[in-house]
Each structure stands twice: as structure tokens, then as C-alpha cells.
Amino acid sequence: MISLAGRDILHSWGKYVFTGIGLGLLIGVTLSMAGIYRGMVEDARALLNNSGADIWVVQRDTLGPYAEPSSLHDDVYRILQGLPGVAATGNVTYLTMQARRAGLDERVMVVGIDGFNSGHPGAPAYLLAGRGITRAHYEAVADIKTGFSLGDHVTIRRHEYLVVGLTQRMVSSGGDPMIFIPLKDAQEAQFLKDNDAILNDRARSAANPSLNRPGVPGLLDAIIASQSANHNVNAVLVKVADGWDSEVVAQDIRRWKRLQAYTRVQMEEILIAKLIATSAKQIGMFLVILAIVSAAIVSFIIYTMTLGKIREIAVLKLIGTRNRTIAGMILQESLGLGLVGFIVGKGAATLWAPYFPKFVLLESGDTLRGFVAVMLICALASIVAIRAALRVDPATAIGG
Q1: 94/152 same-domain check
Q2: Is residue 263 part of a domain?
């Protein structure tokens, strides 16, 4: 049996293929948008996995340390270590900022931790190259996504750090690569004021009569000293002992220590349902718009191709071709266009995904759903062209 759709496509295959390529690039953008969302979710999960924590202890009534600011005294870990079910604790600070290397700025998340042994909460789980931090100050371990190399000198706030180790897939929920530095250095970078601000505060304190009362000696010196030191962290990461339920330990922390404690499940809910919720909605709107645009383009192309062969369709009707056969020809051409476009789009998305600044995850499930959606859109888009073809008068083949 002769395929009318195949013969028609071969008759103008160049136009058909180039149209499919153009549609494929649009489909590639759509798949990439879905991959960006999947990448955001994967980055959030990687952040939690890489922390090595089972429970995040943060400031009460906050969603810290990732979705909201959180501040705790850095000695809180001591009161947590004595709780039943707690195997290990670690202080941590998080600060998203610009780090400078060789005059170039790189947006990173600076992580301050108080231990660099493997398995310590907050420490990198593994290194690709170099070593861990062994000095108390001015050494750093960086994710390779920063572009830093071993031996590079990185400026963070007022100090310069030597990159002694490299790790991988250590990123924030927003996809920013991490740099790990000693906790004391991170506290200074995040919480302490700059020199000019400290001098101004000292001048304001000295000019305050209530701080220079003869009956209160040393009050001004104490205030100045407090302005020159900081002992806060953003969170305490807790590892639960084997055989213990994380939720039970977290409930004890909330009840007896009057602190907020989130388990892994709760923290994942915060990151995905709250922190990246707006981005997810925005990406969803783009996907809807792209689907509508794709349907409009396919519909217009198939309709134009149908109008270009009105005389041929009239001849088919004149020789007794059934309407179902003519409709099937147009539907097959539309689905073929969608198939060509999807193959091109999937290839393009796979090709350019590694060059995106943020992680793009192309899941096979999304690919399958995308293929079904493209075929459905193409089938629906062919309806307009089919209706136009079925209204063709067979007399057109004779008249002109």
C-alpha cells in the first residue's frame, strides 16, 4: 500500500526536515527548562547529603540555615552532645558571597566548619585532589566548579586563603559551588564588622556619657572587646547514633533545649517546597507557554503545507479517496514532524546541557513524558489542517 504521507514528505523533504529542526530547537529549550528544575532539586538534595547530618539544629522559629537566617552560640553543640541518640555534632556557618582570585570574582558559598576529618558533620565527604585543611587559619578546600586549582590564593573578605584541596558536587541549593574554610575564619568573615565600622562604634560608645560613669569601671572596655569578637554559628549539624530514630532525637532537642531541630525529611521539604517553590512555578509557566507556542507553530506549519496541496487533495477526492485516508495522511505528517523535532530537541538539550552555569538534569522519565506531550500536541495541531482538507471541493481539481 502506498503511503500518501511518505510520498508527500519525500516530495518536499528539505522544507520538512528544516521545519523539524526548527521545532526541535524549541523542544530542546523545553526539555532544558525541565532539566533546570530537576537540577535545582538535585542540588538541594546534594546539599543535604554532603552535610553528613541527620538533624539540623537552628535558631528557634526560623527555617534556617538555608531558607532563612539563623544564629546560635557556638557552644550549643556541647549541650547537644550529651543527649541520648546523638553520635556527633559540628558547628557550621554558611555565607554566599563573591570570592576573588587573580582579580576575578566568583560567586560561592563559604562554609565554615570546626572539623575536617572524614565523616565529621559538615566536612567534605571526599577529595578529588590535594589534602584537607590542617591549619587553624587561611587554608581552603574548594569545589572544582569554582574553577580554582591547588595552590591558588583566594581572597575572602580581608584575608587570603590557600586552596589545599579540591572536591566535587559540593554546592548550595542555588547551585553555587562551596569553599570550606576553618570555622573561626568563617565567623570573622560573616559576623565581624570591618575596621572602619568598629572604629565608628568605639567613637560612639566613648561619646556616650552612660558608658563613662565613674561607678562602672571597665564598662567601655568590655563593650569594645565584645565588638571585636563573635561566637555565633548558623547551625549545629547532628549525626544520630545507629538504631535511633532522627525524629525522636529532634523532638527531645525541641522540647528540652528550646531550639528548632529539623530532620532530613523536614529539611528537604523546606528546601524544595519553600526555597525553590517560586522558581519551580516560574519554570512551570515557561513550560506551559512553550507548549502553547509549539502547538501554534506545528498547527501553522501543517495548515500551510495542507493549503499548498489543495489541488492534489481535490484530485484524491475526485478519484474516490476516503476522507479518513486524507485525514490520516495529514495526521501522519504532523506526527512525523513531531518525531523529527523531538529527536533534534533531545539531542540539542543533551549537547548544550553541560554548558549551562547551573546543573541541568535530564531524566529519562521527563524525556518519555516530553515525547508523549509532543506527539499529543502534534496530533491536536493537525485538526485545523484536517478540517480545511475535508472541506475541499473535488471540483477544484477540474476548475483551474
Answers
A1: yes
A2: no
Residues 367 and 288 in one domain: yes
Inside any domain, residue 69: yes
pLDDT on residue 7:
60
92 half-sphere exposure, CB direction, 13 A CA radius: 31
Task: Show the domain range for 249.
Answer: 60-192+229-258
What DSSP state is assigned to residue 81?
Answer: H
| Residue 233: inside a domain | yes
Comparing 129 with 309, which gets the higher pLDDT? 129
> Within the chain, where are the H helices?
4-11, 13-51, 76-81, 183-191, 195-206, 219-227, 246-256, 264-269, 277-307, 310-318, 323-352, 364-390
Q: State the average pLDDT over residues 77-100.
A: 92
> Could you tell me the three cell numbers for 363?
531524566
Give the model confidence (pLDDT) of 315-335 as tens digits: 878 788 888 888 888 888 888
Can you tell me the mean pLDDT for 14-24?
A: 82
Q: By the 8 A CB rule, do 329 and 384 touch?
A: no
- The predicted model scores a pTM of 0.79
Does residue 266 lie in a domain region? no
Q: Looking at the structure, do residues 169 and 83 belong to the same domain, yes or no?
A: yes
pLDDT tops 90 at residue 76: yes
3-state class (DSSP) for residue 94: strand
Q: How far is CA 7 from CA 142, 170, 202, 332, in A?
A: 59, 55, 87, 12
* pLDDT (0 to 100) of residue 400: 54
Mean pLDDT of the chain: 84
Residues 6+ apart with CB under 8 A from 122: 51, 52, 53, 90, 91, 92, 111, 113, 114, 115, 237
Q: Are residues 290 and 354 in the same domain?
A: yes
For 101-129, the DSSP string reads: ETTEEEEEEEEEES--STTSTTS-S--SE
Total domains in the chain come to 2
Q: Residue 368 contacts by C-beta under 8 Å, 6 or more apart in sequence?
A: none
- Give residue 292's pLDDT band: very low, low, confident or very high (50, 70, 90): confident
Whole-number Å distance between alpha carbons of 161 and 108:
14
How confident is residue 185, by pLDDT bands cut at 50, 70 and 90? very high
Per the listing, cell 547514633 goes with: 241
Same domain, 99 and 246: yes
